[in-house]
Amino acid sequence: MNFTVTAGFIWSVADLLRGDYRQSDYGKVILPFTLLRRLDCVLEGTKADVLEEYGKRKDLSLPLEQFLTRKAKQSFYNTSPLDIRKRASPTRSTPSIFDDRYLEKKGYGCS
């Protein structure tokens, strides 16, 4: 995707939030949630493995980082069973901006 299309998509999401947030607050909301969603997408393929490893080792007196980053196949990991998709609950009839079907339709899914 090119920059213009991506920027247009981000602003269309901002328009969905128009009723909930002042225009000056979009950047405080859109950018952090866009980043969190992207991190969820990056970690999605290894999430179950990381949670399983965390469950096995959390009560041991060992540093967990090396085990969890290896399982995540990234330099970061997430041990929360929650993700943006599970936390998103639209309060209106508009589609959730974190709904995979909405993101895939717009060309911004996890793949």
In short:
The protein has helices at 3-16, 26-43, 47-57, 65-72, 84-87, 100-106. It has 111 residues and is mainly alpha-helical. Helix 3 (47-57) packs antiparallel against helix 4.
The total count of helices amounts to 6
Shape: elongated
Number of strands: 0
Mean pLDDT across every amino acid position: 78
Order of helices and strands: HHHHHH
Percent in helix: 55-70%
Describe this structure as you would to a colleague.
This protein is mainly α and 111 residues long. Among the domains are: 49-79, no CATH class; 81-111, no CATH class. The chain is 56% helix and 0% strand. The longest helix is centred in the N-terminal third of the chain and has 18 residues, at 26-43.
Highlighted features:
111 residues, mainly alpha, 6 helices, 56% helix, 0% strand
Q: Helices, strands, pairings?
A:
Elements (H helix, E strand, L loop, with lengths): L2 H14 L9 H18 L3 H11 L7 H8 L11 H4 L12 H7 L5
Helix pairs in contact: 3-4
